[in-house]
Specification:
single chain; alpha+beta; 6 helices; 4 strands; 73% helix; 10% strand; elongated
Length: 215
């Protein structure tokens, strides 16, 4: 029995390490092609798919902008600063607040916000369940909401290319899955115990009825 438990713990640990390696692989796959083309610039104007800081033939630094239509343009630092200023002033207020450059980015922000709402909601669900029973409990809905929120946040952080967020949610993801597995495994055992208790309850009820009849 103890050997079986040790094997299960080892399997969970291996699964957690595998998930971390997969997350790292996805992260590397998203960024590998970008590492060899110069220094990536995080602040880009609208319509640009990527911007790199590179050196020209004379050794001067320039910005190489790749636009979404596939064209490439080399811009001096002064002109690039003016381009960013014009682009920033031309954006709607909500884009400036949310730090996005396209309407597609707004969809990703909604994904991240909804994931955070799930995380906040799981605590409310756990609180309400505990108040009803007047003791601290963790209902299955808590783990389902945790799993859903973590999965959405992993996708969101991959879009943001935030490796810290990806690793942070990936480790919790394994914990949520494991708890749901334990809950599902406990259900058949609970059903068997309930069936075993039914004859005992019926017998106690018969004895109680007989005692009342005699009395």
């Amino acid at each position: 029995m103890e050997q079986t438990r040790s094997n299960k713990r080892l399997m969970v640990l291996i699964a957690a390490l595998a998930l971390l390696l997969v997350s790292a692989g996805v992260w590397w796959g998203l960024t590998r092609s970008e590492l060899a083309a110069g220094i990536k610039v995080a602040v880009t104007p609208a319509g640009a798919s990527s911007v790199r800081l590179v050196s020209d033939d004379d050794g001067d630094l320039i910005y190489r902008v790749t636009w979404r239509d596939g064209s490439t343009q080399e811009i001096t630092p002064v002109l690039y600063a003016k381009l960013l200023e014009e682009d920033y002033q031309g954006r709607p207020a909500y884009m400036r607040i949310l730090n996005i450059t396209t309407t597609a980015g707004l969809m990703w922000v909604f994904v991240g916000v909804f994931a955070q709402v799930l995380f906040m909601g799981r605590m409310i669900v756990q609180w309400v369940a505990s108040e009803r029973l007047k003791r601290s409990v963790v209902p299955p809905a808590f783990w389902w909401m945790s799993l859903g929120g973590a999965s959405m946040l992993i996708v969101y952080f991959l879009w943001r290319k935030d490796i810290v967020g990806v690793f942070g949610q990936a480790t919790g993801w394994v914990v949520y899955i494991r708890n749901l597995m334990l809950i599902q495994r406990a259900k058949p055992a609970s059903a068997v115990e309930a069936l075993d208790e039914e004859p005992v309850i019926a017998e106690e009820q018969e004895e109680s009825a007989e005692a009342q009849a005699v009395g």
